[in-house]
Amino acid sequence: MSGGEWAAVVGALVILVDLAIRITALIIIPRDRKPTAAMAWLLAIFLIPFVGILLYLLIGNIRLPKQRMARQDEADRMIAERTAGVDLVADHASWPTWFDRAVAQNTRLTGLPATSGNRATLIDDYQGSIDAMAADVAAATRFVHVEFFIVALDDTTRGFFAAMEDAVRRGVRVRLLMDHIASSKVPLHKATVEELDRIGVEWHYLLPVRPLKGEWQRPDLRNHRKIVVVDGAIGHMGSQNLISRDYDSEKNRKRGLMWQELVTRVTGPVVAELNAVFRSDWFAETGEVLGEEDNVRAIDLPIDTSAEALDCQVVPSGPAFESENNLRQFLTLVNAAQERVIITSPYFVPDEAMVYAITSAKLRGLEVQLFVSEIGDQGGVWHAQRSYYRALLTAGVRIFLYPGPYILHAKHVSIDDDVAVIGSSNMDIRSFALNFEVTMLVRGASFVAGMREVEQRYRDLGRELTLEEWNREPASRTFLDGIARLTSALQ
Question: Is the peptide bond before 474 cis (omega within 30 degrees of 0)?
């Protein structure tokens, strides 16, 4: 066979393989996937077939390994058994029907019911939040459970590590979970794990990606939760990681970037639900079922009967669940709002349903506001976020920009005057489908009043973006926004 004939054969094979890839993609990719995500993947594969299929094989599967899923199913079963028939709500009749339905939906999805008799305070001081956690750990008598996306030993967190060391020395069991990829990227990671080993903390990675040890799943499926539970009676949760305000990053220091967070300290029966999330994550990663000595039942926790008492419900979400629990919760709350919707999210890349819910709330005559950062720490996400501004502004949504060099990393939503959500979940596709997140649904006017004070501080420090200003944005930047929006749907 001549050289020309060989070239023709090779060319024909390339065309056939390319065609086979495209046909296979059309059959497989749309299956059980949102149309926007399917279209994004198909576009990538059709435009760059060989690169596109390689990326799909690497990050296209959102399912976890079978063993990990089996453990999660077992953890969910144990939670369901513990909570079956338990009703710790003081007065269902005082709830609006829509709120009762929202709680029922969350319970069906997660197995965790709502509870009454809780207290919660908001902390938006970065060092103050870590110091508050450390103070509670310093008073622990039984156990301490710590779970963060990022953990690092530095000048900001040294007091927390010292509190854990003292707790271990007193005979308190201290357990810690941290996301493998996010924590190991921090330059101080080696010193951090050495310190954890030295002080006697029992620790494990969340979702480790170590192929040589047989630990592998899609590398961008991460555990983004932030939880501290002390003796089963005190809990902390919110947006903040256990690391310095500049994330110990030289790149961030050069830009002067600092993170602004919001955390809540809670007491009451809802702390048992935060502990249940930690216990399920510990079991999913280690296979160890923690005993009753490391647990407190919700019915055994003190109940606040004052006028300031809150109804609360913990809502975990992530790829181990069949549904996007946090997205369903946000959609339900925004669609049910009667007066106002105020959203704070550092990474605002919603899906189509969320955009329609937000803009429809404004069209119904509600006050709708969005707080985001004026600058971004992740270029692709920042540009994708900007691509939604025109539609929101045109609908009448007010957008407030939190000023640099701060990154507004807080994640919360307030509905009307007595309902709020706070936690680790961004209002973006990644948090909806790819990350393990945890939020807390709260009903109580006192809690929302505190959140209103935080929101007002955002307004005082930042500025409002107008449609007139946005219309002056150069085409080069809005072009990048559109490209980033297309790629954001790859999941």
Answer: no
User: Which structural domain range is residue 38 located in?
Assistant: 3-59
Q: For residues 384 and 431, what is the distance between their CA atoms, to the nearest angstrom?
A: 15
CB 337 within 8 A of CB 293: no
Q: pLDDT tens digits for 227-240?
A: 999 999 999 999 99
Same domain, 147 and 282: yes
Same domain for 54 and 70: no
Same domain as 294, residue 212: yes
Average pLDDT over residues 316-325: 92
439: β partners: 315, 423
Q: What is the pLDDT of residues 87-146, one digit of tens each?
A: 889 888 899 999 999 999 999 999 999 999 999 999 999 999 999 999 999 999 999 999
Compute the mean pLDDT over every residue in the chain, rounded to the nearest whole number. Answer: 91
Identify whether 320 is part of a domain: no
Contacts of 489 by beta carbon, 8 Å cutoff, 6+ apart? 34, 36, 37, 39, 40, 429
In this structure, the answer to whether residues 447 and 359 fall within a common structural domain is: yes
Cα–Cα distance measured from residue 314 to residue 309, given in angstroms and rounded to the nearest whole number = 16
pLDDT (tens digit per residue) in 11-66: 677 678 767 767 777 777 776 667 667 667 677 777 777 677 777 766 666 677 78
CATH number, domain with residue 99: 3.30.870.10
Domain assignment present for 475: yes
Q: Is residue 98 within 8 Å of 331, Cβ to Cβ?
A: no
**Residue 404, Cβ neighbours under 10 Å: how many?**
15
- 58 burial level (CB within 10 Å; 0-12, 13-18, 19+): exposed
What HEC string does 221-262 produce?
CCECCCEEEECCCEEEEECCCECCCCCCCHHHHHHCCEEECC
What is the tally of structural domains in the chain? 3
Residues 347 and 207 in one domain: no
| Same domain as 186, residue 288 | yes
What number of other Cβ atoms are within 10 A of residue 188's Cβ? 17
Q: Is the pLDDT of residue 210 over 80?
A: yes
Tell me the Cα Rg of the chain: 24
Closest among 468, 424, 145 to 279, alpha carbons compared: 145
- Single residue among 255, 280, 314 that ends a domain in this structure: 314
Half-sphere exposure of 481 (CA within 13 A, CB side): 16
Kindly state the helix (H) or strand (E) to which residue 315 belongs, with its residue range: strand 310-317
Give CA–CA dist 176/400, Å, rounded. 36
